Each structure stands twice: as structure tokens, then as C-alpha cells.
């Protein structure tokens, strides 16, 4: 890591849990001022823990609400001026009470719209906010979270989730196209199954340990850890990734079918 790689303002959505938490920790270690946006009050505890190393701030709000996004971005701008790094990580994956996905006939319009609002519209609005500041400063990094489910058919994902995760890839490609001339990069990360609260259905009455079932199909014979996403996102937000933009990085242990 070069010296210019530290000391940026890095906004991580969904930083209170799972991949976002691991990313917030890693970007904190990289020397950045991390700003966590999450709907969970847990974000304040994470910020307090990371602040022991370097300044970290949490803002609590619902990324499914455009009004909240406007308030949150205004607060971040007022406190830090803007974001040098934006990681659009917060996402939801609705599941039935037994942990299985909703088949298409069972997806309500309300649920479809909620998934699109949090998984696609929020990254769009946050990127729209962040890119102007980044373009002015001729430096910026945006990383959006897709999923293996956005890359190929997955019988555990659900169509609303898969559609949102495919949409974010198309959005990010255009973001990279429009931001490139300003030295601002935008990339997508597509995780396979990663051990986090989102992928844990053990408390939902599922009779199988889905992690174990899934791991047997993965070339590396295991599911991933959140820190293994944090390290990839650290690279994509660093100076070392200065010529990487518009890419989709699969972090899935080698499962492509
Ligand atoms: N875990 C996996 O196996 C996996 C696989 C592929 C993709 N992903 C993607 O990675 C990202 C992170 O997933 P995770 O597994 O860490 O999930 P997680 O549930 O552990 O964490 C998600 C975080 O986002 C926050 N969040 C959710 N909705 C929000 C909203 N409306 N407003 C503000 N904050 C909100 C939650 O409070 C939580 O802190 C998601 O976009 C997910 O789709 C995860």
C-alpha cells in the first residue's frame, strides 16, 4: 500500500454487520476515516470500536427511503465534505420462514419494490451524490455489491434478489464509463456464499446446514468469510487498483455453475 492510500474518507453502507463490518474494519486498518451508514443502531458500537484506532462515524437511517438517503448524504457532506471511497454494500435477501427463497408467484409487488429500493436504488442515489465530489477532486473509488445470483442462475436466490444483483452490474458498468475520464473507478464485487447473518438460515427452521451443502459444490470446498470480501474491496479502493474499472470480481471459491 502506498502512502497516498491512507487518509481518505470511506463510506460503507451496511457496515454494522457481515461483509460491510469486515470492510469497515479493513478500510480502518488501511488508514481511512470510515463512515458507516446502516439502519441498525449497532453501527454506533462498531464506530466506537473502530474509533479506538482512528476517527470513525456512524449515521443511522433506512436506505430504502429516498428521504433518509437525502438526510444521510447531507449529514456526511456537512461533516466530511463528501466521500473519496463509497462501498454500496447494504442489501437484503428476503426468505420464506423456512429459509427457502420465494418462488416468483409468491413475490409481492411490495417485496419486489423493497428489494429494488435497497439493493439498486440506494446505490444509484449514493453514487449520484458521491461522484460529483470525486469528479471534482479527480480521484474516487466506488465498489458495489452484486452476488453470484446476479451472474448466473442460483436455485437458492429468488428472482427479486437475482434481478437486483444483475441490475447493479449494469449500473456499475455505466458508472465506470461516465466516471472514468475523472479518474474515478467503479467496480462490482460478486460474492458467492459468505458466512454472515444474511446467509444464515439456521434459525429459520431449515433442517439442513445449507453452508455445508453448498460448500460441497465449491471447488475450494468451503463457504467464504466476510474478511475475504474486505480484502478484495480494500484492493479495489486502493491505488494499486488504479487501472481496474467496470470490472466484476467474483469472490466465490471457484463456483461458476
Ligand atoms: N452473505 C452472502 O452470502 C452474500 C452473497 C452474495 C452477496 N451478498 C451481498 O453482500 C452484501 C452484504 O451482505 P451481508 O451478508 O454482509 O448481509 P448482512 O445482513 O450481514 O448485513 C447487511 C447490513 O446491511 C444493513 N441494511 C440492510 N438493509 C438496510 C437498509 N434499508 N438501510 C440501511 N442499512 C441496511 C443491515 O442492517 C446490515 O447491517 C449485500 O448486498 C448482499 O446482498 C452477500
Automatic annotation (TrEMBL):
Membrane-spanning ranges: none
GO molecular function: 3-oxoacyl-[acyl-carrier-protein] reductase (NADPH) activity
SUPFAM superfamilies found in the cross-reference section: NAD(P)-binding Rossmann-fold domains
EC numbers: 1.1.1.100
Superkingdom of this protein's organism: Bacteria
Keyword list, A-Z: Oxidoreductase
Any Pfam family the entry gives: adh_short_C2
Ribonucleoprotein found in the keyword field: no
Gene3D superfamilies hit by this protein: NAD(P)-binding Rossmann-like Domain
Family classification: Belongs to the short-chain dehydrogenases/reductases (SDR) family.
NCBIfam families hit by this protein: PRK12826.1-2
Protein name: 3-oxoacyl-[acyl-carrier protein] reductase
Organism: Pseudarthrobacter defluvii
Amino acid at each position: 500500500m502506498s502512502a497516498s492510500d491512507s487518509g481518505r474518507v470511506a463510506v460503507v453502507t451496511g457496515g454494522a454487520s457481515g461483509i460491510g463490518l469486515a470492510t469497515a474494519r479493513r478500510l480502518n486498518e488501511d488508514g481511512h476515516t470510515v463512515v458507516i451508514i446502516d439502519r441498525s443502531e449497532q453501527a454506533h458500537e462498531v464506530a466506537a470500536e473502530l474509533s479506538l484506532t482512528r476517527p470513525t462515524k456512524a449515521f443511522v437511517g433506512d436506505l430504502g427511503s429516498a428521504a433518509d438517503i437525502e438526510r444521510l448524504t447531507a449529514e456526511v457532506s456537512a461533516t466530511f465534505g463528501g466521500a473519496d471511497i463509497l462501498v454500496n454494500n447494504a442489501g437484503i435477501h428476503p426468505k420464506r420462514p423456512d429459509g427457502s427463497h420465494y418462488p416468483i408467484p409468491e413475490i409481492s409487488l411490495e417485496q419486489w419494490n423493497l428489494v429494488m429500493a435497497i439493493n439498486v436504488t440506494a446505490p444509484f442515489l449514493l453514487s449520484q451524490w458521491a461522484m460529483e465530489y470525486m469528479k471534482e477532486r479527480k480521484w474516487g473509488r466506488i465498489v458495489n455489491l452484486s452476488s453470484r445470483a446476479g451472474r448466473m442462475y442460483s436455485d437458492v436466490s429468488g428472482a427479486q434478489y437475482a434481478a437486483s444483483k444483475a441490475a447493479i452490474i449494469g449500473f456499475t458498468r455505466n458508472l465506470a464509463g461516465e466516471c472514468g475520464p475523472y479518474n474515478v473507478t467503479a467496480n462490482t464485487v460478486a460474492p458467492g456464499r459468505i458466512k454472515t447473518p444474511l446467509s444464515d438460515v439456521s434459525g429459520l427452521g431449515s433442517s439442513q446446514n445449507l453452508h455445508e451443502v453448498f460448500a460441497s459444490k465449491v471447488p475450494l470446498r468451503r463457504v467464504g468469510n466476510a474478511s475475504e470480501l474486505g480484502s478484495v474491496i480494500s484492493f479495489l479502493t486502493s491505488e494499486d487498483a488504479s487501472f481496474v474499472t467496470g470490472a466484476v470480481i467474483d469472490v466465490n471459491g471457484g463456483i461458476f455453475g
